[in-house]
C-alpha cells in the first residue's frame, strides 16, 4: 500500500475512533443510569415526597420545583432575550457602531461567566440587596441571566437568517420598520428562537450552583406556594443526596432515579426543540 | 395615451460608496402607460427603479443627488412620508417573494398594516386584488392554503396582487419574469398591459422582446446613462443611437 493511501486510511480511522469514543461514552452513561435507576422509577416515586430522611419516598417536590423554576425563568428570559436580539440585529446591528460592538462583546462575555459567579451575583443582588430572599424569584432571575446570552446569540442568528426578500416585500408595501419586524421578521424567526430558548432552558434545568446560593432548599415539608418561597429542585436534590445522606446505601437507588428523571427531562426538552425545528423548517421552505 | 408625467427624475445621480451607478438621469414616466427600462446587466436599471420608491434607502452606502418628482413633489424631500410613498408606488421583485402565510394573508398584509380595511371589506379587497392580478379563478377555493403551494408564475401574480391591494398609483416591476417559464411570462405580460388602464406601470427587463411586446415607452440604459428614451415603436424601429441599435440587434447584452 502506498503512503498516500495509508495516510488517508489512518486519518479516517482516527476520525472514526474519535466519533466512536464520544458516542460510546454517551451510550455508557445512559446505560449505567438506566440499569441502576430504571427499577426505582414508578408512579409513586414521581408523585410522593421524600420520607425517612430521604432514604425512602419519592421526589415530587424536586420535580415540581424544577418545573416551577423553569417556567419563571422562561417568563423572564424570553421577552428580554428576544427584545435584546431584535435590538442587536435590527437596530444597532445594521450599523457598525462602537456601541453595537461593545454591547455584543458584553453579551458574549456573559456567556463565558462560570455559573457559580451567577450564583454569587444572584445572592448579592436579588437575595440580599433587593431583598427577594432565598426564593423561586431570586433563583429564576439568576437563571434567566445565565440563559440570556445563549438566547440572545441564538435568536440573533435566527433573525439574521430571515431572507432579505421578506423584509423588502414588507417595506415595499409601505410597512414601517417596526411593522416589518413584528409581522414579517419575528414570525419567520420564531421557530429558531423557540428552539434556542428550549435548549438554553434545558441547560439551565441542570444548573446547581446558581440555585444553591439563591433559593434551593435541602428539604421542605411543603410545596412552594408563592414565588417568594424556597423550593426543592432536581439537580440540588441530587447534590444533597450525594453529599448529605445519612444512609448512603439506602439513598443510592433514589439518587440514580433522580438523575435519570433529570436526564429524561432534559432529553425530552431537546426532543421538543428538534421537533419544532424540523416541523417549521418544512413549513417555511415548502 | 396620457401626456402627463406621473414620475419625473431630474438630474438623478446615485452612488454606492464610490461607485457611480446612475449618472444625471432625466426621464419622465407617463401616467397610465407601460414604460420599460431595458439594458444589459449592471447598467443600473434595477437601481433606477428602486430609487423611484426609495427602496435604496435600505442600503446604507447609497447616496443620491437630484430629484424624483411624483405628481410634481420631490420624494427625496426630507418631509416625504416614505411609508405613504411606498403605498402609492408599489413594487414587485425579480424572484417571487410571498410571505410564508396563506394566500389570503399575503394579500391582506398591506391593507392590514395601513388599516385600510377589515372584515367583509377586507375580503372584497382581497378578491378585487386577485381579480386584477388574474389569479382569482385559480385560487378562490383555497385562499387559506399556503402561498408556497402555488407555482412560480402564480406566486409572482400573487405578489402583484399583494402590491395592488394597497391601491397604489404606480406599479414598479423589477424583472418580474426572469424566474418564470414562457407560459407564466406570457400571463404576466398580458397582465401588465391590462393594468395600465388603472395604474402607471414601470417594468425593468433585460429582455428586449418583452419591452417591445408590453411597453408604450422604452428607455435604454447603459453604464448608468440614459442612452435612448422614446416611444417603444421608434426605439425599436428607428434607434437613434448606435449602442441602442447594437443592443436591439443582439450584438451585446
What report would you give on this structure?
Chain A contains eleven helices and two strands; from the N terminus they run ααββααααααααα. Chain A has two domains: 3-40; 45-284, MetI-like (MetI-like fold, Orthogonal Bundle), CATH 1.10.3720.10. With 286 residues, chain A is mostly helical. Chain B has helices spanning 45-50, 82-88, 103-113, 119-132, 136-139, 152-164, 182-195, 208-214, 232-237, 242-248; strands at 5-16, 19-30, 34-38, 62-70, 73-74, 89-92, 170-174, 200-205, 217-222, 225-231. In chain B, the strands form two sheets. Chain B has a six-stranded mixed β-sheet with strand order 6-7-8-3-9-10. Chain B has a four-stranded antiparallel β-sheet with strand order 2-1-4-5, with no helix packed on it. In chain B, α3 (103-113) crosses α4, α3 (103-113) runs parallel beside α6 (152-164) and α6 runs parallel beside α7. The mean pLDDT of chain B is 91. The A-B interface holds A 94-95, 163, 165-176, 179, 183-184, 187-188, 283-284, 286 and B 53, 55, 58, 60, 83-87, 90-91, 93, 95, 97-100, 109-110, 113-114, 146, 148-149, 159, 162-163, 166.
Amino acid at each position: 500500500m502506498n503512503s498516500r493511501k495509508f495516510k488517508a486510511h489512518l486519518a479516517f480511522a482516527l476520525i472514526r475512533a474519535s466519533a466512536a469514543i464520544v458516542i460510546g461514552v454517551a451510550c455508557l452513561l445512559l446505560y449505567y443510569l438506566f440499569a441502576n435507576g430504571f427499577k426505582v422509577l414508578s408512579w409513586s416515586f414521581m408523585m410522593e415526597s421524600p420520607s425517612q430522611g430521604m432514604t425512602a419516598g419519592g421526589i415530587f417536590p424536586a420535580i415540581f420545583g424544577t418545573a416551577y423554576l423553569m417556567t419563571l425563568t422562561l417568563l423572564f428570559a424570553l421577552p428580554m432575550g428576544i427584545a435584546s436580539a431584535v435590538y442587536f440585529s435590527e437596530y444597532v446591528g445594521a450599523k457598525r457602531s462602537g456601541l453595537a460592538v461593545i454591547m455584543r462583546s458584553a453579551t458574549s462575555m456573559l456567556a463565558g461567566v462560570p455559573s457559580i459567579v451567577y450564583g454569587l451575583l444572584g445572592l448579592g443582588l436579588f437575595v440580599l440587596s433587593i431583598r427577594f430572599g432565598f426564593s423561586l424569584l431570586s433563583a429564576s432571575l439568576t437563571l434567566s441571566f445565565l440563559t440570556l446570552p445563549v438566547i440572545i446569540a441564538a435568536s440573533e442568528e435566527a433573525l439574521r437568517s430571515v431572507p432579505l426578500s421578506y423584509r423588502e416585500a414588507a417595506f415595499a408595501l409601505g410597512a414601517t420598520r417596526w411593522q416589518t419586524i413584528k409581522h414579517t421578521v419575528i414570525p419567520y424567526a420564531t421557530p429558531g428562537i423557540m428552539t434556542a430558548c428550549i435548549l438554553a432552558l434545558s441547560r439551565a434545568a441542570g444548573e446547581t450552583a446558581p440555585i444553591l446560593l439563591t433559593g434551593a432548599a435541602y428539604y421542605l415539608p411543603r410545596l412552594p406556594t408563592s414565588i417568594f418561597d424556597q423550593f426543592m429542585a432536581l439537580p440540588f436534590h441530587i447534590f444533597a443526596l450525594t453529599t448529605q445522606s445519612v444512609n448512603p446505601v439506602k439513598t443510592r437507588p433514589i439518587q440514580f432515579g433522580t438523575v435519570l428523571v433529570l436526564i429524561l427531562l432534559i432529553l425530552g426538552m431537546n426532543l421538543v426543540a428538534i421537533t419544532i425545528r424540523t416541523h417549521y423548517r418544512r413549513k417555511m421552505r415548502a | 395615451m396620457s401626456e402627463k408625467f406621473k414620475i419625473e427624475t431630474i438630474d438623478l445621480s446615485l452612488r454606492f460608496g464610490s461607485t457611480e451607478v446612475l449618472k444625471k438621469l432625466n426621464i419622465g414616466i407617463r401616467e397610465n402607460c407601460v414604460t420599460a427600462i431595458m439594458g444589459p446587466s449592471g447598467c443600473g436599471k434595477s437601481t433606477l427603479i428602486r430609487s423611484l420608491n426609495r427602496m435604496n434607502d435600505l442600503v446604507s452606502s447609497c447616496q443620491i443627488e437630484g430629484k424624483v418628482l411624483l405628481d410634481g413633489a420631490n420624494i427625496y424631500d426630507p418631509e416625504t412620508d416614505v411609508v405613504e410613498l411606498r403605498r402609492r408606488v408599489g413594487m414587485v421583485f425579480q424572484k417571487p417573494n410571498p410571505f410564508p402565510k396563506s394566500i389570503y394573508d399575503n394579500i391582506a398584509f398591506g391593507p392590514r398594516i395601513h388599516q385600510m380595511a377589515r372584515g367583509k371589506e377586507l375580503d372584497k379587497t382581497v378578491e378585487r386584488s386577485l381579480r386584477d392580478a388574474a389569479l382569482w379563478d385559480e385560487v378562490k377555493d383555497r385562499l387559506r392554503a399556503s402561498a408556497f403551494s402555488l407555482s412560480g408564475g402564480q406566486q409572482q401574480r400573487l405578489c402583484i396582487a399583494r402590491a395592488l391591494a394597497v391601491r397604489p398609483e404606480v406599479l414598479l416591476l423589477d424583472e418580474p419574469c426572469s424566474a418564470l417559464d414562457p407560459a407564466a411570462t406570457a400571463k404576466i405580460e398580458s397582465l401588465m398591459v391590462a393594468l395600465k388602464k388603472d395604474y402607471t406601470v414601470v417594468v425593468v427587463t433585460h429582455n428586449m422582446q418583452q419591452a417591445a411586446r408590453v411597453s408604450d415607452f422604452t428607455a435604454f440604459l447603459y453604464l448608468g446613462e440614459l442612452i435612448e428614451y422614446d416611444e417603444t415603436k421608434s426605439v425599436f424601429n428607428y434607434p437613434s443611437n448606435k449602442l441602442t441599435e447594437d443592443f436591439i440587434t443582439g450584438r451585446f447584452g
